[in-house]
Amino acid sequence: MREFGYQRADDVPGAVALLAADPDARFLGGGTNLVDLMKTGVERPALLVDVRELPLDGIEPTGDGGLRIGATVTNSDLAAHPEVRRRYPALAQAVLAGASGQLRNMATVGGNLLQRTRCGYFTDVSKPCNKRVPGSGCPAVTGEHHNHAVLGASDHCVAVHPSDMGVALTAFDAVVTFETAEGPGELPLTDFYLPVGDTPHRETALPPGALITGVTLPPAPAARSRYRKVRERASYAFAIGSVAAALDIEDGVVREARLALGAVASRPWRARAAEAVLTGAPAGGDTFAAAADAELAAARPLTDNAYKVTLMRNLVIAVLTELAEETTR
């Protein structure tokens, strides 16, 4: 591990100024991803700016009926918050599915959004990786890729984003707020992550040196939502596929649908094609199958991950069916 400096930020402007003064500095929240990457040599910051004590740890209602979640709120506090559990149950379920209690106690909302892929080629500095060293190649395309992307990938990178929380936030149209030396800004989460294209090393649309200060959730589209995660073992593991869904059903017809998929792309995948099929259609098995098929028509699986297309089709149908059945009870 490279020798590094450490400094605790006293306030948001001070934290931003510290990072602006040193291009090799990194913000440190819970450290559950960054520190691991430092140990393997993937991340080599010269300075860690500790932002954990900044006053960004609140969860508050917004004037329009949404929620404002501070960037340093721990995953444990987010999942346990009564308004999150009541209005955005899929978000609480996603956080609880994401890691053990010990990790949830340390991990923060802002850090979760910025966590990097768990692709074995990315985390092994002895291997080439376009995300880590642009232009070096993507050995996963012809190598180990059974848990890699089937949507939105490119020849330059086929890794998937690991966040569970990000999938649910994407379904709920969350907006990320941030601070830079030039002032505050915001990005819808659907625009926060960049398409992988030929620049997989550029992962987010955040301006250089930006500090995430929070996430804002608009009013929940429906009282019922669900997050379902499939993993290779029952203990905590990264998803091989996941779905966050919310349905508003009236008189057997879908009035509004929100759907996002996880572990299928380089970013949480908003399923717009599926939502278009669902909206205004009967809430039943034929509609749900058609919605899944519409979204997965764009899938481009590799040799060893074609199973994900069938898995995700079945998962989407199952989650939507469960939500529809709940509304009729």
> Uncertain regions: pLDDT < 50 for 5+ in a row?
none
Instruction: Return the average pLDDT rounded to an integer.
Output: 95
Give a quick account of the main beta sheet: strands, pairing sense, barrel closure.
Answer: 5 strands, antiparallel
- The percentage of residues in β strands lies in 15-25%
Structure classification: alpha+beta
Task: Label the overall shape.
Answer: globular
Straight-line distance between termini: 56 Å
- Computed over alpha carbons, the radius of gyration is 20 Å
Query: Which range best describes the helical content: under 10%, 10-25%, 25-40%, 40-55%, 55-70% or over 70%?
Result: 25-40%
Number of strand segments: 12
User: Number of helical runs?
Assistant: 13
**Major sheet: order of its strands?**
4-5-8-6-7
Instruction: Spell out the helices and strands N to C.
Output: EHEHEEEHHHHHHHEEHEEEEEHHH
Task: Describe the structure concisely.
With 329 residues, the protein is an alpha+beta fold. The chain is built from 13 helices and twelve strands. The strands form three sheets. A five-stranded antiparallel β-sheet has the order 4-5-8-6-7. A four-stranded antiparallel β-sheet has the order 9-10-11-12, sandwiched between helices. It has a three-stranded parallel β-sheet with strand order 1-3-2, with helices on one face.
